[in-house]
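Much of what follows relies on a compact textual record of a protein's fold. A record is reproduced here so that you can trace the correspondence yourselves:
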Amino acid sequence: MASNDFPYFLSGATEEHNGLRGNWLCFLSLGATLIAIGLVAIGYPVVATPATVELVGFLLLFGAAVEVASGFWARRWGGFFLHLFGGLLYLSSDRCSSSDRPSGRLATLSCSLCSSSRPV
């Protein structure tokens, strides 16, 4: 073994590390901004709760569109129907979670469980 290979357990991805080190100020400001937003959300839960519900609703709607679109790109029929079912589940979860019914919480829970247990 050559002596210049001593830290053999270190990653060889020094270019990526240098790129990250060059943007440390952006990461620091992002972290400070997220901490400030979190403190505001803790301080004003009446405002933070509807904003979070709306954000999750938009993300579910976007996820449904992406899931259905990726179903059309699937090469097999089984993949098509699986993606279509996932997209419809996202869409139904979005529609149910926008109301204040307990079924909305159940649909959101089933959507998250189904999407996390689906094989890639």
